[in-house]
Amino acid sequence: MSRPGDRYSQLESAIMGGVMRAWRTDGDGHRSLRLEEIPLPVAGAQEALVRVRACGVCRTDLHVTDGDLPAHRSPVTPGHEVVGDVVDVGGEVRELAPGDRVGIAWLRQTCGTCRWCRRGAENLCLASRYTGWDEDGGYAEYAVVPAAYAYRLPDEVPHVQLAPLLCAGIIGYRALRRAMVPPGGRLGIYGFGASAHLTAQIALAQGADVHVLTRDPAARRLALDLGATSAGAADDEPPVQLDSAIVFAPAGELVPVALAALDQGGTLAVAGIHLSHIPGLDYQRHLFRERTLTSVTSNTRADGEELLALAGRIGLRATVTPYPFERAADALHDLSQDKVSGAAVLVMDPN
Ligand SMILES: [Zn+2]
Ligand SMILES: [Zn+2]
Prior knowledge:
Layout: H1 6-16, E1 19-24, E2 34-39, E3 47-57, H2 59-65, E4 82-89, E5 101-104, E6 107-109, H3 115-118, E7 129-130, E8 142-146, E9 151-152, H4 159-162, H5 168-178, E10 186-190, H6 194-205, E11 209-213, H7 217-226, E12 230-232, E13 242-247, H8 254-261, E14 262-270, H9 283-287, E15 292-295, H10 301-314, E16 320-324, H11 328-336, E17 343-347
Parallel strand pairs: 10-11, 10-13, 11-12, 13-14, 14-15, 16-17
Antiparallel strand pairs: 1-2, 3-4, 3-8, 3-17, 4-5, 5-9, 6-7
């Protein structure tokens, strides 16, 4: 097999000795996530090799490592909110060059030919592949990405600020659109972690009245600081009937709670890739009067481009809890215990 990375191997092997550190899981619970030395990845013809600067820690990483999602590759390096610098590109790459600052997100590849891709719904592609699940992700010193799926990132924003935008931000943005908030409408947000706190800022910037419902008192304070009109416990009734709601917590029992809080004609979007069991619904109490229940599945590249542009325009600010790269397992554990304020981000070089 030819090695398209021969140029990079001259460049990088000298520095790295051809190996890098990466967190690997065996898919058997996050306590088994281990920091290992593995061979440096090589950019294929249509890929870029990226030196990782920061990588966000997403709840989906937990679902991958603790087995809520079936293993697609084992061992695998998690992480799909990757901010880094291109250090090498494959021979067919025209859109990126070494030195470019890029983001690597969850949606890694689509087929471009199935009926979903052709109708502009590549998030539903029948052959889609995902970073940190189907291929190694960003809990590592280096990562590769298909060049057509990398996002160009602004140079002036700190790495740790950009990382959470790449999944929490993009998925939240898609969830907000799926929730169909009418102009000036009332939006309920159930659960207030990384994605929710970014989504709330977008909704507020668009003129919505935001009501946050979450069990975590610190998250309720953050919600009010960001401008939410009210913040209550997860199963509280919001002070007004909601036009729209988004369930971010992976808790199926919140679905009937949120549906009951909707006004007639309202829409509930479930943002998670994984949800615990949804209890039985009562037609009159939860659905009648044209309430809509929908889900959010991944995102399109257009969603990502729109979110990144919007983030710059409205000054979207992630509340970040940084962790040194070496503490990735602790970051995942803290996330599993709801001990992270805002978004956890692994930082490669604290300086
Ligand atoms: Zn497709
Ligand atoms: Zn994610």
